[in-house]
Amino acid sequence: MTQQKIETTRGATDVNWGPRGTAGISFAAALEFQDVSCNVGATHVLKDTNFETAPGEILCLLGESGSGKSTILRATAGLQEIDSGRILINKRIMSAKGVTVPPDKRGIGLMFQDFALFPHLSILQNVEYGLKSLGREEAKKQALQALKRVGLDGRAMDYPSQLSGGQQQRLALARSIAPKPGLLLLDEPFSSLDARLRESVRAETLAVLRETQATCILVTHDPEEAMIFGDKIALLRDGQIAQIGTSDEIYNHPKDIDVARFFSPVSEIPTIVQNGVATTPFGNVEAKGRPDGARVIVAMRPIGAVYIDASGNGTPGRIVAKRDALGVDTLEVAVAGIDNTIRLRQPTNVNIRPGLDVNIAINPEHVLVFDAI
């Protein structure tokens, strides 16, 4: 039987995972950060951070290294004291100045970047470790259920060192969901996986998270990953939330140019507003609410905002570079009157080559306008 047929008969799941719909269901918790500040040594890691999640929601924390993502997880779990503000779970204060409820009293499941497995314990014992409050038989039953969902019930007596990287990731996931926590915290859970595994593991992990119905906070530095997983995305910058919203809101309506740059490369044209529009070599773009003479940046993403106009209309340009990857051409086009090249992406076309003269046009509804800093 072919791989495709196997996947079809099992509901399009990875053959190494257990059947979908079998993860235990949790009572989802609500999380609130109220003006939370946190210092690590002399560094102000979080600064008056505010956000809240609805029960069962997946919130992705996105940002550069050092922006405060992992500190939010540690503070939520009770592993990091805060200096001011309050952290609440289901309206109950978990952390405040001088108050820290212990991690094991918060109803939280943790999945660390390095998996943090116990090498001296069997796979079953690793999962049972977080079920000590249950009786021995009930703990074993619940652990085996979690292992079955991730396809490792047949390896229960093996040890973590006998597992591949992808299997260790699944073991860490099983251990985090086995206690049926109301809140799951995942710290870059896919960063150690190679590209070949990452896509399938992410898809199945998302299915497991949805099945548990737990509220999830997932830390990542990958915008695509955040958009795949998150009901909401919070982009952190220098210890504060730069913007929070759905993937559509944060991608299509970025608060500032730095938010737009984080989600994709953009071609930028500095210009001036006149009569409510920003003038560019490609034509006028609406700049609502800005006075005449205001300095703005017109930003264009390589997909959707700018394209080669095969009809011969548009603004003349010359292709100066081309990179073909997985059936997609990334082109850089020099246009008179613009200091930097314009970047665009399109399906591979063997007739497009460096040195070719083309006409470039824009979709004004996909062009972004920001106040110049």
Topology:
Elements: H1 3-9, E1 31-40, E2 43-53, E3 58-63, H2 69-77, E4 84-89, E5 92-96, E6 99-100, E7 108-111, H3 123-128, H4 136-149, H5 165-177, E8 183-187, H6 195-212, E9 215-220, H7 223-229, E10 232-237, E11 240-245, H8 247-252, H9 257-263, E12 267-274, E13 277-280, E14 283-286, E15 295-300, E16 306-308, E17 315-325, E18 328-335, E19 342-347, E20 357-362, E21 368-371
Helix pairs in contact: 4-5, 5-6
Structural class of the secondary elements? alpha+beta
Q: Whole-Å distance between the termini?
A: 60 Å
Helical segment count: 9
Pick out the low-confidence regions. Answer: 1-14
Beta-strand portion reads 25-35%
Number of strands: 21
Strand/helix succession: HEEEHEEEEHHHEHEHEEHHEEEEEEEEEE
Q: What is the average per-residue confidence, as pLDDT, rounded to a whole number?
A: 89
What is Rg? 25 Å
Give a quick account of the main beta sheet: strands, pairing sense, barrel closure: 6 strands, mixed
Tell me, what's the shape?
Answer: globular
Could you tell me the CATH topology label of the largest domain: Rossmann fold
What is the strand arrangement across the widest sheet?
7-8-9-3-10-11
How many structural domains? 2
CATH evolutionary superfamily of the largest domain: P-loop containing nucleotide triphosphate hydrolases
Looking at the overall shape, the CATH architecture of the largest domain is: 3-Layer(aba) Sandwich
